[in-house]
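Researcher: Structure prediction, please.
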Amino acid sequence: TRVEIALPPVKTAADASKASDLVLTAMARGDLSLDDGHRLLAAIEARLRIIEATEWERGLRELERQRGAGK
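Model: Predicted structure follows.
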């Protein structure tokens, strides 16, 4: 059985939170199986880790740039 759930694009941590809320709500209503819900939540979590790593890297580059400019 295929179940469709509309999730927003996940480009920020706030987006990931909204998407997770939608999945959890669908699971609680019985609109989404626990297995499918867990798979979606795992995908959202993976996307969030990518966002966090990208933001961390961007911040590190900015600090390095500022440090280099201060020499």
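Model: Helices lie at 13-29, 34-69.
Researcher: Thanks, that helps.
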